[in-house]
User: Fold this.
Amino acid sequence: MNSFRKYRYSAVPALTAIMIFLLVWEGAVRWWNIEKWILPAPSLIVQTFRDSLHLLPAHIWITATEAVLGFLLGIAAALIIAFILDFSPLLRKSFYPILLFSQTIPIIAIAPLLIIWFGYGILPKVLVVALVTFFPVVVSVTEGLQSSDRDMIRLVHSMGGTSWQVFKKVRFPSSLPYLFTGLRIAATYSVLSAVISEWVGASKGLGIYLIKAQSSFATDQVFVVIMLISLLSCLMFLVVILIGRIVMPWKHKTKK
Amino acid sequence: MELEIRNIHHSFSGDPVMKDMNLFLKKREFVSLIGPSGCGKSTLFNFIAGLEIPDSGTIYHVGKDITGKRGHSSYMMQKDLLFPWRTVLENVLLGPSITKQHTDKIKEEALSLFPLFGLDGYEDYYPTVLSGGMKQRAALLRTFLHNKELMLLDEPFGALDALTREKMHDWLLQVWSQMQRTVLFITHSIDEAIFLSDRIYVLSPRPATVLLELEVTLPRPRKKDMAVSPEYLKLKEELMMALYQD
Assistant:
């Protein structure tokens, strides 16, 4: 209750700033009679959003599906790879640098390749999202597993604990905050990379909607899509934070 | 004999850190190790706990060679090492959860000990809310509940302020007399050593070896005012002579 009140009040200045920004925008467009294909007023964007409500859900659904599936695939792959790299110092030494180096390849440049291999369906988009989200997660988990308190490990060893017990009781739980830092970054990337992967070739999705709106100079529609993309990203981000609070109650609660 | 350490020699990368170390602990005895910082007291504990293996020498636990073997003693390190993701109750039950003896019975036992350890009411809290003294007591309760006859306490009160420390001494002796365990205790404080122990070993600077073995003849239960008795002062003088000889 207390924290809710705190959040509510801390949101007031930010909301006020947004309101003022929108009012200035609206006023400027009306005052200077700016063409709506250059800069539509916020009121027009809201109007366009209402008018296209019947069209949008199918596109949102596709993009959200690509983002969520890709994100889940990316996380799963990242966790498996991170655990394997953690298990074997030799593998870590041989593959971790390659993993870091592979990030210099822009994933978007791989998208056409994936389209060639896997066609125009949802699969190549999911793979693009997975590739993009994989990296921040694998790096943060690997780091998290390496950075656990040595004395805690020694304590469990002194009690006769096995390496598996050390992993389960010390190293994995202490890597969780790192994992969620990676997940928060990956969550915001996921929607973005889904949208961009659609530009390479798709029939439905917010990315395609955006391209179509742009080519017909429907600037108000472009703004609607931008708004939806950021809302979707926000939602992913919030879901990650929420899961983080459930998985790591000790981070924000004093009592179980 | 609960613990016997025979002829341990050890060096780190050619630099000798321990030389002909010999000491023993009888069952239910409280023995302190005192010596200059960095003389290798913690290394000795690591040997006993089986975390490291000495270059030569043997460690016997109730007559059995346990050199390099783990799980024969409960080791409390200087830091409290409470896991932030476990509640206080889950933390103190770490030992049983590792030795797979985590039963309702041991949970009952743990809960019944919370008042004695001054932790009642904090069972379900995460350790971040505990004060320094409470954290050390929780760590000590975890050490007790690991249920090994031999307890290795490495400066458990080193990080506490003087007043809290004094209180912890009385409390520790009370707990120790109730729980009936053998304790090997590392300290930097002469007074702490005299007040708590049955016997005291004074160690030399590196390479560590036993300079003096001293029986503390003060009767139990120990009282704070014993610190001004002639007997106490004589012990203290003897310890200081051994520690500060050059």
Remarks:
- Residues 80-147 of chain B form one domain.
- The mean pLDDT of chain B is 90.
- The two ends of chain B are 34 Å apart (CA to CA).
- Chain B touches chain A at residues 49-51, 70-71, 73-75, 77, 79, 81, 83-87, 94-95, 97-99, 124-126, 128-129, 146 (CB under 8 Å).
